[in-house]
Known about the structure:
6 helices, 0% strand
Amino acid sequence: xxxxxxxxxxxxxxxxxxxxxxxxxxxxxxxxxxxxxxxxxxxxxxxxxxxxxxxxxxxxxxxxxxxxxxxxxxxxxxxxxxxxxxxxxxxxxxxxxxxxxxxxxxxxxxxxxxxxxxxxxxxxxxxxxxxxxxxxxxxxxxxxxxxxxxxxxxxxxxxxxxxxxxxxxxx
Length: 171
């Protein structure tokens, strides 16, 4: 048993270790029935928590200020996600057909296993790219909208609330 008080550095290390353990389970409180839903929802929660931004309201405006290479990356990652989800749909179709024709059941199992592997990875990549786009370009969005006075220093919840008011057309 160690009676010495914990130093600030040790406390930071402990918090970091606990954060890593927590993030392996979920990046935000799980509220969806699947990992994929939770991972995509976690992006909205994390952006909202960090910047106070309503991602659903601000996303179209953010899209307009993103550089073309970032848009291309986001489209590519979204296409990968859509393709992975399409694999799940095919697996379900094969499973129905497998009730009448056994080779389709084999195809359902193989396609389902591949989809089970690909969908979570694709969802995590999509969520990560969305968060990165917000992290890097939220100040540019604020400047373009006319909130230049709020962009001095790091983006914060005050900036997010101002962006929400404009995006929602609130007073």
